[in-house]
UniProtKB/TrEMBL annotation:
Annotated membrane topology: Multi-pass membrane protein
Keyword match Cell membrane: yes
Keywords from the named record: Cell membrane, Membrane, Transmembrane, Transmembrane helix
InterPro entries linked: Diverse_Substrate_Transporter, EamA_dom, EmrE-like
Transmembrane segments: 27-51, 63-83, 89-107, 119-139, 159-181, 202-221, 241-260, 272-289, 295-314
GO cellular component entries: plasma membrane
One Pfam family in the UniProt entry: EamA
Name the record gives this protein: EamA domain-containing protein
Residues in the signal sequence: none
SUPFAM superfamilies attached to this UniProt entry: Multidrug resistance efflux transporter EmrE
């Protein structure tokens, strides 16, 4: 049960993150914001490790595991999600990235782990629920308008470019979903292959974030150069931007990444990633409460389907005690 609580809490935090991110991304470039999130999170996690008198691992093999988790999950997956959402839509981003449990189940089968019919049933029901929650605004109007570009000889080059950019965005979202599932599998493998002190969720999260931070830094630097450092500094010193960065770094990164890595160690990768389906549900509820966004009947039905899917998955036997 503990693992389900961790996973639900992480997914709920990320689901509510879009309200804060909406404010921050209006004024801060995406990868600069991601770099700031990781910087704040790393400082906090390093301080917690120091207070707990928990040393950083020195073994090279351990850091290779951390690099794999951070590179695949915190650099490639999050970066691909940013690009994919920017080139398509937030609705499509929510739908495609929550397909992560499908990839996790396929990876589990490939590695010899048994994935029962009950898990697949839970995945299908939950993803159908996400589709209803997200609604019909999945494909942007511009992409629909240019959908005939491949068959219409009179289509302009700009329309064809928009279509290609849209499908490139879809590809990025698929990569984001697959690599997040891969990261979850890597976390489980690290937990079984590293000493307990080095696979501790807090230490593992901090170590993996180091890799993510290093890989994101060059892209963030280029975005900062494009905006201009004086202008960026003026933006970051406003109370709204500063508060958003601190929240995203402390809660959405340090705390949520720790909770996710802790939860993944208690459940199979397929069942763990299924909890990502809670993100659009929580995001929609918070959007309704804080931004007065309307809740459709399809949202309510879809949210119920997500909960049913999670309930079915929770009834399967875990790979490790969850008491």
């Amino acid at each position: 049960m503990r693992g389900y609580v961790y996973l639900s809490a992480a997914a709920a935090i990320w689901g509510g993150m879009y309200v804060i991110s909406k404010v921050a991304l209006d004024v801060i470039p995406a990868f600069v914001l991601l770099w700031l999130r990781y910087t704040v999170a790393l400082v906090v996690l390093a301080l917690v490790l120091k207070v707990r008198h928990q040393p950083w691992p020195r073994d090279r093999r351990t850091w290779l595991w951390y690099a794999a988790v951070g590179g695949v999950g915190y650099a490639v997956s999050i970066g691909a999600q940013f690009l994919g959402t920017a080139w398509t839509s937030a609705h499509l981003g929510a739908l495609v990235t929550t397909s992560s449990p499908v990839f996790a189940a396929l990876m589990a089968r490939w590695s010899g782990e048994q994935v029962g019919g009950r898990v697949w049933t839970a995945v299908i029901i939950a993803l159908a629920g996400v589709g209803l929650v997200v609604g019909g605004d999945v494909i942007p109007g511009s992409a629909v308008a240019t959908a005939g570009a491949l068959v219409n000889p009179g289509t302009t080059a700009s329309s064809l470019g928009s279509l290609l950019l849209f499908w490139a965005g879809v590809g990025c979202l698929v990569v984001a979903a697959a690599t997040w599932a891969g990261m979850s599998v890597l976390v489980q493998r690290a937990e079984s292959r590293l000493p307990a002190s080095e696979s501790d969720p807090l230490v593992l999260t901090a170590g993996a974030l180091v890799t993510g931070w290093v890989m994101v830094t060059p892209i963030a630097f280029m975005q900062g150069m494009a905006v201009g450092w004086p202008a960026l500094w003026r933006i970051l010193t406003t109370p709204e931007a500063l508060g958003s960065v601190l929240y995203l770094g402390l809660i959405s990164t340090a705390l949520a990444f720790f909770l996710w890595n802790a939860g993944v160690q208690y459940a199979s990768a397929a069942r763990a990633n299924l909890f990502l389906a809670l993100q659009p549900v929580v995001g929609g509820l918070l959007g309704h409460w804080t931004l007065a966004e309307p809740l459709r009947l399809t949202f309510c039905v879809g949210g119920a389907a997500v909960l049913v899917g999670l309930w079915i998955a929770a009834g399967t036997q875990p790979g490790r005690s969850e008491s």
